[in-house]
């Protein structure tokens, strides 16, 4: 039987509409409009698309968005100076530096410069640490968006065996923590994992975020599992595909996210949720 498709676009639309209502309510009460500052350095086309989508979502939901575009030769000091300025600007609630950054810039140094309560990406070690000790302040957008999707579709996480494929700072590691916070038994797989197929086959919930097209084979999926595909890979013909072999996986899974239209829209909705949260911290 074919899996139920998890419609991230629809869940994100509902979340954004709820956020828009909350922002309108703030405005009625005379509270300031939540403001997200997005910094894009260089001319990576995929990053430009992501940043544009974030801006459009902000405008639709009544958030203020400020964009800062810097050339690819920007130095680390120049970027840090802009982060400092935004940290000190009381009108700015959230700061997002789009990754990847050009190679002359140490990304970690930049992420650590953002004040933790303005770190709407949740990448600052302070925010990562708070997630580790079960007291999150800002939760990384993609893993939090995945948890929202699971909840929206009534997927029980507690006690389930979850396997995360990929151990990046943006997706895999925080996803492992989110699932653990929801009391799953979690295994995280990476390039040195032995018997990846066996690990995936043991999972009730699979989250794939490796950035390699069709890396997780459909035949590895346990019948009845829930499959969440975080990958967005552009193929030579211009089409998008995920990290999971969708067509075969969907014949085994109970539920599966499509690419596009699965996790991607949830990342943006969650970013706005975090920006509103940052504004509330600031009130
Ligand atoms: N590049 C790819 N995904 C992300 C993300 O979630 N946040 C930032 N800042 N950059 C990214």
From TrEMBL:
Binding positions for NADP(+) per the UniProt entry: 166-168, 232
GO biological process entries: L-histidine biosynthetic process; methionine biosynthetic process; purine nucleotide biosynthetic process; tetrahydrofolate interconversion
Gene3D superfamilies on file: Leucine Dehydrogenase, chain A, domain 1, NAD(P)-binding Rossmann-like Domain
Residues covered by the Tetrahydrofolate dehydrogenase/cyclohydrolase NAD(P)-binding domain: 140-281
Listed CDD domains: NAD_bind_m-THF_DH_Cyclohyd
Residue stretches making up the Tetrahydrofolate dehydrogenase/cyclohydrolase catalytic domain: 6-121
A GO molecular function held by the record: methenyltetrahydrofolate cyclohydrolase activity
Keyword terms: Amino-acid biosynthesis, Histidine biosynthesis, Hydrolase, Methionine biosynthesis, Multifunctional enzyme, NADP, One-carbon metabolism, Oxidoreductase, Purine biosynthesis
Transmembrane segments: none
Family classification: Belongs to the tetrahydrofolate dehydrogenase/cyclohydrolase family.
HAMAP family: THF_DHG_CYH
Function description: Catalyzes the oxidation of 5,10-methylenetetrahydrofolate to 5,10-methenyltetrahydrofolate and then the hydrolysis of 5,10-methenyltetrahydrofolate to 10-formyltetrahydrofolate.
Protein name (record): Bifunctional protein FolD
Organism of provenance: Neisseria elongata subsp. glycolytica ATCC 29315
Gene designation per UniProt: folD
């Amino acid at each position: 039987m074919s899996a139920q498709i998890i419609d991230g676009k629809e869940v994100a639309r509902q979340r954004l509409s709820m956020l828009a209502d909350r922002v309108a309510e703030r405005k009625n009460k005379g509270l300031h409009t939540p403001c997200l500052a997005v910094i894009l350095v260089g001319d990576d086309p995929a990053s430009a698309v992501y940043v544009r989508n974030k801006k459009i979502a902000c405008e639709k939901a009544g958030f203020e968005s400020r964009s800062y575009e810097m050339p690819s030769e920007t130095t680390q000091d120049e970027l840090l100076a802009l982060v400092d300025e935004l940290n000190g600007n009381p009108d700015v609630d959230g700061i997002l530096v789009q990754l990847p950054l050009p190679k002359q810039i140490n990304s970690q140094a930049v992420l650590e410069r953002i004040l933790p309560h303005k770190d709407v990406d949740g990448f600052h070690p302070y925010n990562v640490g708070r997630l580790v000790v079960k007291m999150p302040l800002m939760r990384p957008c993609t893993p939090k968006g995945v948890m929202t999707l699971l909840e929206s579709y009534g997927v029980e996480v507690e006690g389930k065996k979850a396997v995360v494929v990929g151990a990046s700072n943006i997706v895999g590691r925080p996803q492992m923590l989110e699932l653990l916070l929801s009391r799953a038994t979690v295994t995280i797989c990476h390039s040195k994992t032995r018997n990846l197929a066996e690990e995936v086959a043991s999972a009730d919930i699979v989250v794939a975020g490796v950035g390699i097209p069709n890396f997780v084979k459909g035949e590895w999926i346990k019948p009845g599992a829930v499959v969440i595909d975080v990958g967005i890979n552009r193929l030579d013909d211009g089409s998008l595909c995920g990290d999971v072999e969708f067509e075969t996986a969907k014949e085994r899974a109970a539920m599966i996210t499509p690419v596009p239209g699965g996790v991607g829209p949830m990342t943006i909705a969650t970013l706005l949720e975090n920006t509103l949260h940052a504004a509330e911290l600031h009130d």
